[in-house]
Write a structure and sequence with these properties.
alpha/beta, Rossmann fold, 2 domains, binds pyridoxal-5'-phosphate
């Protein structure tokens, strides 16, 4: 007879009596969790292993590489080699959501279009590209290739490419991280292998192969693809493995978004302070992307920013890990939940323990939503605002409704915000991907969403 599986000495059933939210997760119910462990930002920052200095260091590295991008990726010429996305209000979508929920959504809804980031069309163009750049810079310095004051376009020259061709980069991915890492690594001249989970869309694999990237496919989910990639890279000193579950470098690449956002909102005339709170809703997979962005936002806005992670009901690993305090010691599969979702970027069953521990004192809460809701909002956003996103990127769109009159309605009072504060506030929906989705595939998503209206 085999012993029943235990987590930190208790069975899943025992954990469940302690944390009733696990019963809702097991039943695939849409639910939410407000973080009782959030502390004032200054306090959280003092205890944290990362600081604003780390964010500034990442920002400076991206600024050094701007010269390279401006020359090598024409789509970044307009922004002088800085990879950034626009932010804009979405009043028509806000009205539609208000009509649907039969109440008002106080505050103004805005969207951050990481779906339209240059080079790889998703939030992964932040962290994924950043980690490859840092790797390339480190190698260049080690080989004595880079000299003080060199313009970074030298990274495209033969001596650099010859050195990079001796190295390889590997990553495990549900799709978009592989796309970012693959495109930039191949461009710099690295050999690159992407280990793709079963959720990854065919067009992403095809596109990578067309750029000379080796794509290894797994019939299983994301954790297996990552573990296998890590194992294969382990014994090879010339292989850099981008560890989506644990990498601080990847995380820091995402954090720079906070600095950029501060400037963008100021330019747009949006005030953020204690009386004008900023609510940010971030689609969450393993946690690095949304965690890094939220971290950067907290660094610049402190207690005026309130960040939430959004996940599919079938893959709400971050909510499960945070609500139970078990972090990466528990997976949705431990509850019998299948980690199957149309939101391929979010199809992760076990959250990053690194992100869980860093964000625990800073994050406001988590919520889950059904795939059907993402599909429906996908079509609605296309109709109202002419913005086309992939399903994952819609997860944040439900947050303002939950905060106004749903499962997060208790949050403002718990956070010391009055109704007037919320009405003066801004809801920022982080749209994480979509611009590279082929038109035909996007049309299928749209029609699926229309059919559910
Ligand atoms: C990867 C991804 C996310 C989530 O990022 P994680 O780092 O996995 O949490 C959200 N949306 C899209 C479109 C993604 O590709």
């Amino acid at each position: 007879m085999s012993a029943e599986k235990t987590i930190r000495g208790k069975t899943v059933a025992q954990w469940e009596t302690e944390f009733p939210i696990m019963t809702e997760i097991r039943a695939l119910k849409e639910t939410a969790w407000i973080n009782p462990g959030r502390v004032p930002f200054d306090e959280a920052a003092r205890e944290c292993v990362l600081s604003i200095d780390d964010v500034r260091d990442a920002e400076a590295r991206l600024a050094r590489f701007a010269d390279y991008f401006e020359h090598e990726f024409p789509e970044t010429a307009a922004s002088h080699g800085i990879i950034e996305s626009p932010v804009r209000p979405i009043p028509a979508m806000q009205r539609l959501l208000e009509n649907e929920c039969g109440g008002s959504v106080p505050g103004s809804m805005w969207i951050k279009l990481d779906s339209h980031l240059p080079i790889s069309g998703s939030i992964k163009a932040r962290g994924g590209i950043y980690e490859v750049l840092k790797t390339a810079e480190d190698i260049a310095v080690r080989h004595g290739l880079l000299h003080e004051g060199d313009p970074y376009r030298v990274f495209a020259t033969k001596p650099f490419r010859d050195v990079f061709s001796q190295y390889s980069v590997a990553v495990g991915s549900t799709g978009n991280l592989g796309l970012s890492i693959g495109i930039i690594s191949a461009k710099l001249g690295f050999r690159v292998t992407v280990h793709m989970s079963a959720d990854a869309r065919q067009w992403k694999k095809d596109l990578l192969r067309s750029k000379g990237v080796t794509v290894v496919e797994y019939p299983s989910d994301y954790s297996i693809a990552v573990a296998e990639g890590r194992r294969q890279a382990e014994n090879d000193p010339y292989c850099h493995f981008v560890d989506d579950e644990n990498s601080k470098t990847l995380f820091l690449g995402y954090t720079v978004a906070g600095l950029r956002l501060k400037q963008q909102l100021a330019d747009a005339g949006v005030t953020v302070d204690a009386k004008h709170p900023l609510f940010v809703y971030l689609p969450c997979g393993v946690g690095g992307g949304p965690g890094g962005v939220a971290f950067g936002i907290k660094q610049v806005f402190g207690d005026a920013a309130h960040c939430f992670f959004a996940e599919p009901t079938h893959s709400c690993c971050m909510m499960l890990g945070m609500a139970t305090g078990l972090d990466s010691d528990i997976s949705v599969q431990d509850l019998g939940v299948d980690n199957r979702t149309i939101a391929d970027g979010l199809a992760v069953g076990r959250a990053s323990s690194f992100v869980g521990s860093v964000m625990r004192p800073m994050i406001s809460g988590c919520y889950s939503l059904d795939d059907s809701r993402m599909y429906r909002m996908l079509a609605q956003l296309a109709d109202t605002e002419d913005i086309r996103l992939e399903p994952s990127a819609l997860a944040g769109m439900y947050g303002p409704v939950l905060l106004a009159s749903g499962a997060l309605a208790g949050y403002p009072a718990a956070a010391g915000l009055s109704a007037e504060d919320v009405a003066n506030g801004t809801h920022l929906v982080w749209a994480t991907g979509g611009n590279m989705v082929p038109a035909e595939e996007m049309q299928h998503y749209y029609e699926a969403g229309k059919a559910l209206e």
